[in-house]
Amino acid sequence: MGFLKKYIKKYWKPFCIAVSFLMLEVICDLMQPTIMSKIIDVGIAGRDIKYVLSMGAIMLGVTTLGALGAISRNIVSSNVSQKFGMDMRSDLFSKIQTLSFDNIGKFETASLVTRLTNDIIQVQNFAHGLMRIFVKAPLLFIGSIIMASLLNPGMTLIIVAIVPAVSFLIYMSMKIGSPFFSKVQKALDKVNGVMREYLAGVRVVKAFNRFDYEKGRFAGTNKDLAEVSITAMRVMAVFTPGISLVVNMGIIAVLWIGGRKVNNGSMHVGQVIAFVNYMTQILFSVMMISWIFTTFVRAKVSAERIGEVMAQENSMIVSAVLIDPIHKSGQVDFEQVSFTYAGTSQDLVLKDITFTCLPGETVGIIGSTGSGKTTLVNLLSRFYDVTSGRIRMDGIDIRDIDPKVLRERIAVVSQKVILFTGTILENIKWGKENATLDEIKKVADVAQAHEFISSFPEGYETLLGQRGVNLSGGQKQRISIARALVHKPEIMIFDDCTSAVDVATEAKIREALKSYANDLTCLIIAQRITSVMDADRIVVLDDGQMVGTGTHEELMQTCTVYRDIYHSQIGKEGI
Question: How far apart are CA 287 and CA 312, in angstroms?
Fold first, then answer.
C-alpha cells in the first residue's frame, strides 16, 4: 500500500491540525469528571454555594472549549477527507487510463467500478474517522486510566484487570473479521457485474423476454452479498457485547468496592462518581476502538484492492528514446508479425503476417470470423504489442514512437460503435475538439450523415442518450465515420464499420471518401466482400495466416479462400 505515501505527504499538516483540535476536546472531556468530584466532595459536602457556582462556571467553560474544539475538528477533518477521497479517485481513474488492454484485462469492469467507488469510500471514511474518533478513542482511553489512577490509585487495579481481556477480544475480532470483509467486497463486485451486464444488454433481455432469468441471476448474487455481509456482521457482533460486558463488570466492581470504601471513610462519594464516569469513558473508548478495528479491516481490504490497480506496470514498453518521424507519408509495413494474447495458452492469433500499405493506398482486409482481422489493426494502433516481428510507420518501429503521437496520426472507426451522452456535434468533435461547424458538416456529408442529422428538429444539437440509444445502428456508424474523418489523420482504419449500413449508402460513402481522403492510407476491414472489391490491394486472412494478397481480379484467379467468400456472398445477394 505504498501508494498511500503520496497522500500522507500531502495531507499530514491539516491532519495534525485536526488532531490538535481533537486533543483539546479530549482534555476537556477528561477534566469534567474531576471537576464534578470536587463540586460534590468540597462544595456540596461543605455546603459552600460559592465554590459550587465557581466550579460550575469552570466546568461550563471547559465544556464550551471542548465543543469549539469538536466543531473546528469536524470542519478540518471533513474538508481533508473529502479532498483525500477526490484525489485518490482521480489518481485511480488516471492510472486505469494509462494501462494497456492487457493490464485492464486482469480486472473485471465491474470490479474496477467497485474500486473507484465503494473501495475509495471505505478508505476515505477511515481517514475521516482517524481525525474524528479513531484518535480520540485511544487518547480518551489512556487519559481516563491516568486520571482515574490519580484520583484513587488503589481502584486502578480494576482497570488493570479488564484491559487485557478487552485487548484480547479486539485482537480476535480483527483476526477473524478480515477474511469476511474481503469476501464482502468480492460479492459486491459480482452484484455490480450482473447489473452492468443487464444494463448493457437490456434490449436483448427485452427481445427474448428473459426478465425472470435476469431477476433470478441478480437475486442470486444479491443474496450471496447479503449472506456474506450478515456473516461478517454476525462474527463482529459477537465481540462487541463481550467487550461491553467486560467493561460493565468493571463498573459494577467500582460501585461495589467504592461503596465499601465510602462506608469506611477511605474514599469520598464524588470520587466514586468520578471514577464511574472515567470507567464509562473507558467503555466508550473501548467500544470505539473495537469499531475502529472493524473499520480498519474493511479499509485495509479496500486499500489493498486499490493498490492492486495502482501497482500495475503498463505492459506496453515505451522506448527510452522516442522518435518523431520527419517524413510523415503514412506508409505502414507489417514485417513477420505474430501475436497471441498475454496470459492465455491459446495458439498464435496472427502468424507471420507481412505486407505493406503504401502512402495514399487503400488496402482491404477480409477473412472469415475469427481470422484475426481486427487484431491486426489493433496492433497498428498499439492497443497491444506484437509477440514477434515488427510494425513500421514511415520506416520507424511503432514501439519507438510516442503512443500519443502515433494515435494522433491514426483514426479508427471501430466495429463496435461507442457514442457518448451529449449532442451529435459534441460526439463528432471527439475527433477534433476545435473543429468548426463547417468542418463538422463537411465530414458528416462525406459519411452520409448530414441528411439525417438535418432532419432532426435540433439538427447537430440533438441530444444523444447513452451509447446513442436514440439512433439506429447505421446512423451511429455514420456518425462514428464523421468523427474519424474530422480528426484528419494520415492513416484511416475502417473496422467493419458499415455492417449496419445498406449497400447503396455504403457505395456513396466509398465514393465520397475517394475525393475527400484520396491522400490517406486506408485499411478497410470487412465481412462484406463488396466493401473491399475496389481497394488498391486486398489481404486475405484465414485462421490468423495471410493466404492471399492482390487486387480483386488477381485474387479471383489465385486465392481459393477469397474466391469461396466471393461466390458465397454474391450468390446469397443474388437470391
Answer: 38
